Amino acid sequence: MRGVVSALRDFLTNPVFLWIWIGLVAGSLVTLMWDLRENNPEVPSLMKGVWIATILYSGPVGLALYWYSGRKQIPRDTVWRRGVRSDAHCYSGCGAGEVAGIVIAAGILALGTWWVAAITFALAYVAGYAMTVGPLMQEGVGLREAMMDALYSETASITVMEVVAIGVDIYFAGDARMGEPLFWSALFFSLSMGLLAAYPVNVLLVRMGVKAGMMDPRDYGEEAGAH
Fold this sequence. Notes:
- This protein has helices spanning 2-13, 15-38, 45-69, 79-108, 113-138, 143-173, 181-208, 220-226.
- By secondary structure, it is an all-alpha fold.
- The radius of gyration is 18 Å and the shape is globular.
- The N and C termini lie far apart (56 Å).
Protein backbone atom coordinates (compact mmCIF):
# COMPACT_ATOMS: atom_id res chain seq x y z
CA MET A 1 0.00 0.00 0.00
CA ARG A 2 2.82 2.41 0.84
CA GLY A 3 4.37 1.69 -2.53
CA VAL A 4 1.13 2.60 -4.31
CA VAL A 5 0.77 5.82 -2.33
CA SER A 6 4.40 6.73 -2.97
CA ALA A 7 4.02 6.06 -6.70
CA LEU A 8 0.86 8.16 -6.85
CA ARG A 9 2.57 11.03 -5.06
CA ASP A 10 5.49 10.85 -7.50
CA PHE A 11 3.00 10.85 -10.36
CA LEU A 12 1.21 13.93 -9.01
CA THR A 13 4.53 15.69 -8.44
CA ASN A 14 5.51 15.31 -12.09
CA PRO A 15 4.75 18.57 -13.99
CA VAL A 16 4.06 16.54 -17.15
CA PHE A 17 0.98 15.06 -15.48
CA LEU A 18 -0.29 18.54 -14.62
CA TRP A 19 0.08 19.79 -18.19
CA ILE A 20 -1.58 16.67 -19.59
CA TRP A 21 -4.44 17.14 -17.14
CA ILE A 22 -4.87 20.79 -18.13
CA GLY A 23 -5.04 19.68 -21.76
CA LEU A 24 -7.67 17.07 -20.95
CA VAL A 25 -9.73 19.64 -19.05
CA ALA A 26 -9.55 22.06 -21.99
CA GLY A 27 -10.55 19.37 -24.48
CA SER A 28 -13.41 18.24 -22.26
CA LEU A 29 -14.70 21.81 -21.95
CA VAL A 30 -14.60 22.29 -25.71
CA THR A 31 -16.53 19.04 -26.18
CA LEU A 32 -19.13 20.07 -23.59
CA MET A 33 -19.67 23.50 -25.10
CA TRP A 34 -20.00 21.99 -28.57
CA ASP A 35 -22.57 19.46 -27.40
CA LEU A 36 -24.56 22.07 -25.47
CA ARG A 37 -24.70 24.29 -28.54
CA GLU A 38 -25.35 21.65 -31.18
CA ASN A 39 -27.31 18.91 -29.42
CA ASN A 40 -28.54 20.17 -26.05
CA PRO A 41 -29.29 23.91 -26.20
CA GLU A 42 -32.34 23.36 -23.96
CA VAL A 43 -30.19 22.58 -20.91
CA PRO A 44 -31.05 25.26 -18.30
CA SER A 45 -28.43 27.84 -17.36
CA LEU A 46 -28.08 26.39 -13.87
CA MET A 47 -27.20 22.93 -15.14
CA LYS A 48 -24.91 24.33 -17.83
CA GLY A 49 -23.00 26.00 -15.02
CA VAL A 50 -23.01 22.77 -13.02
CA TRP A 51 -21.48 20.77 -15.87
CA ILE A 52 -18.94 23.45 -16.74
CA ALA A 53 -17.78 23.56 -13.12
CA THR A 54 -17.71 19.77 -12.84
CA ILE A 55 -15.49 19.52 -15.91
CA LEU A 56 -13.24 22.36 -14.72
CA TYR A 57 -12.61 20.42 -11.50
CA SER A 58 -12.55 16.89 -12.92
CA GLY A 59 -11.92 17.11 -16.67
CA PRO A 60 -12.83 13.96 -18.60
CA VAL A 61 -14.42 12.44 -15.48
CA GLY A 62 -16.92 15.31 -15.44
CA LEU A 63 -17.51 14.98 -19.18
CA ALA A 64 -18.25 11.26 -18.78
CA LEU A 65 -20.78 12.04 -16.05
CA TYR A 66 -22.46 14.65 -18.24
CA TRP A 67 -22.66 12.17 -21.12
CA TYR A 68 -24.14 9.54 -18.81
CA SER A 69 -26.77 11.65 -17.07
CA GLY A 70 -26.96 15.24 -18.29
CA ARG A 71 -28.00 14.98 -21.96
CA LYS A 72 -31.51 14.68 -23.38
CA GLN A 73 -30.22 11.73 -25.44
CA ILE A 74 -30.04 9.38 -22.43
CA PRO A 75 -32.21 6.30 -23.13
CA ARG A 76 -33.96 6.50 -19.74
CA ASP A 77 -33.61 8.21 -16.39
CA THR A 78 -32.70 6.12 -13.36
CA VAL A 79 -31.86 6.66 -9.72
CA TRP A 80 -28.21 6.23 -10.69
CA ARG A 81 -28.38 9.03 -13.25
CA ARG A 82 -30.34 11.24 -10.86
CA GLY A 83 -27.67 10.57 -8.26
CA VAL A 84 -24.99 11.73 -10.71
CA ARG A 85 -26.83 14.99 -11.41
CA SER A 86 -27.39 15.58 -7.71
CA ASP A 87 -23.74 14.84 -6.98
CA ALA A 88 -22.55 17.18 -9.75
CA HIS A 89 -24.86 19.95 -8.53
CA CYS A 90 -23.41 19.69 -5.03
CA TYR A 91 -19.89 19.41 -6.42
CA SER A 92 -20.14 22.57 -8.52
CA GLY A 93 -20.60 24.67 -5.39
CA CYS A 94 -18.42 22.74 -2.96
CA GLY A 95 -15.59 22.55 -5.47
CA ALA A 96 -15.51 26.33 -5.78
CA GLY A 97 -15.38 26.66 -2.01
CA GLU A 98 -12.64 24.07 -1.73
CA VAL A 99 -10.48 25.64 -4.42
CA ALA A 100 -10.87 29.06 -2.80
CA GLY A 101 -10.12 27.66 0.65
CA ILE A 102 -7.02 25.72 -0.37
CA VAL A 103 -5.61 28.56 -2.46
CA ILE A 104 -6.23 31.20 0.21
CA ALA A 105 -5.41 29.24 3.35
CA ALA A 106 -2.62 26.98 2.10
CA GLY A 107 -1.31 28.73 -0.99
CA ILE A 108 -1.43 32.43 -0.08
CA LEU A 109 -1.49 32.53 3.73
CA ALA A 110 0.52 29.30 4.24
CA LEU A 111 -1.50 28.44 7.34
CA GLY A 112 -1.22 25.23 9.32
CA THR A 113 -3.12 22.06 8.49
CA TRP A 114 -6.00 22.60 10.90
CA TRP A 115 -6.57 26.16 9.73
CA VAL A 116 -6.50 25.04 6.11
CA ALA A 117 -9.04 22.33 6.83
CA ALA A 118 -11.33 24.64 8.83
CA ILE A 119 -11.33 27.48 6.32
CA THR A 120 -11.77 25.15 3.36
CA PHE A 121 -14.61 23.28 5.04
CA ALA A 122 -16.36 26.55 5.85
CA LEU A 123 -16.08 27.94 2.32
CA ALA A 124 -17.17 24.62 0.80
CA TYR A 125 -20.30 24.51 2.97
CA VAL A 126 -21.18 28.13 2.19
CA ALA A 127 -20.74 27.62 -1.56
CA GLY A 128 -22.51 24.26 -1.51
CA TYR A 129 -25.53 25.59 0.38
CA ALA A 130 -25.64 28.65 -1.90
CA MET A 131 -26.19 26.36 -4.90
CA THR A 132 -29.47 25.27 -3.30
CA VAL A 133 -30.53 28.41 -1.45
CA GLY A 134 -30.04 30.79 -4.39
CA PRO A 135 -32.26 28.98 -6.93
CA LEU A 136 -34.94 28.35 -4.31
CA MET A 137 -35.11 32.03 -3.39
CA GLN A 138 -35.33 32.91 -7.09
CA GLU A 139 -38.43 30.71 -7.19
CA GLY A 140 -39.97 32.74 -4.35
CA VAL A 141 -39.01 30.55 -1.37
CA GLY A 142 -38.16 32.51 1.78
CA LEU A 143 -34.59 32.59 3.10
CA ARG A 144 -35.35 30.59 6.24
CA GLU A 145 -37.19 27.85 4.36
CA ALA A 146 -34.49 27.72 1.68
CA MET A 147 -31.77 27.43 4.32
CA MET A 148 -33.58 24.61 6.09
CA ASP A 149 -34.07 22.80 2.79
CA ALA A 150 -30.34 23.14 2.01
CA LEU A 151 -29.32 21.90 5.46
CA TYR A 152 -31.65 18.92 5.18
CA SER A 153 -30.80 17.90 1.63
CA GLU A 154 -27.14 18.86 1.19
CA THR A 155 -25.34 18.43 4.51
CA ALA A 156 -24.62 14.70 4.21
CA SER A 157 -23.32 15.01 0.65
CA ILE A 158 -21.16 18.06 1.39
CA THR A 159 -19.72 16.45 4.52
CA VAL A 160 -18.63 13.24 2.81
CA MET A 161 -17.37 15.11 -0.24
CA GLU A 162 -15.23 17.52 1.77
CA VAL A 163 -13.91 15.06 4.35
CA VAL A 164 -12.53 12.95 1.52
CA ALA A 165 -11.40 15.80 -0.73
CA ILE A 166 -9.71 17.90 1.92
CA GLY A 167 -8.22 14.85 3.60
CA VAL A 168 -6.72 13.60 0.32
CA ASP A 169 -5.37 17.02 -0.58
CA ILE A 170 -3.71 17.56 2.80
CA TYR A 171 -2.32 14.01 2.79
CA PHE A 172 -0.63 14.35 -0.58
CA ALA A 173 0.21 18.06 -0.65
CA GLY A 174 0.08 19.32 2.90
CA ASP A 175 3.52 20.90 2.58
CA ALA A 176 3.32 21.94 -1.08
CA ARG A 177 3.39 25.57 -2.18
CA MET A 178 1.44 27.24 -4.98
CA GLY A 179 4.43 27.27 -7.30
CA GLU A 180 4.84 23.50 -7.12
CA PRO A 181 3.01 21.18 -9.55
CA LEU A 182 2.01 18.94 -6.63
CA PHE A 183 -0.09 21.74 -5.12
CA TRP A 184 -2.37 21.87 -8.16
CA SER A 185 -2.23 18.19 -9.15
CA ALA A 186 -3.21 17.09 -5.65
CA LEU A 187 -6.01 19.67 -5.59
CA PHE A 188 -7.53 18.37 -8.84
CA PHE A 189 -7.08 14.76 -7.74
CA SER A 190 -8.65 15.40 -4.33
CA LEU A 191 -11.64 17.16 -5.88
CA SER A 192 -12.38 14.13 -8.05
CA MET A 193 -11.99 11.79 -5.08
CA GLY A 194 -14.54 13.85 -3.18
CA LEU A 195 -16.94 13.74 -6.12
CA LEU A 196 -16.72 9.95 -6.36
CA ALA A 197 -17.00 9.47 -2.59
CA ALA A 198 -20.21 11.53 -2.40
CA TYR A 199 -21.91 9.71 -5.28
CA PRO A 200 -23.32 6.78 -3.22
CA VAL A 201 -24.58 9.29 -0.66
CA ASN A 202 -26.46 11.19 -3.35
CA VAL A 203 -27.92 8.00 -4.80
CA LEU A 204 -29.18 7.07 -1.32
CA LEU A 205 -30.64 10.55 -0.74
CA VAL A 206 -32.43 10.40 -4.09
CA ARG A 207 -33.75 6.92 -3.36
CA MET A 208 -35.02 8.12 0.06
CA GLY A 209 -36.74 11.13 -1.51
CA VAL A 210 -34.54 13.66 0.28
CA LYS A 211 -33.23 14.93 -3.06
CA ALA A 212 -35.03 14.96 -6.40
CA GLY A 213 -31.90 14.40 -8.46
CA MET A 214 -32.46 17.50 -10.62
CA MET A 215 -34.72 17.45 -13.67
CA ASP A 216 -34.79 14.62 -16.21
CA PRO A 217 -32.82 16.09 -19.15
CA ARG A 218 -35.24 14.48 -21.61
CA ASP A 219 -37.86 16.97 -20.35
CA TYR A 220 -35.79 20.10 -20.94
CA GLY A 221 -37.34 20.77 -24.34
CA GLU A 222 -40.88 20.28 -23.01
CA GLU A 223 -40.20 22.74 -20.20
CA ALA A 224 -38.95 25.34 -22.68
CA GLY A 225 -42.01 24.78 -24.86
CA ALA A 226 -44.33 25.28 -21.91
CA HIS A 227 -43.08 28.83 -21.57
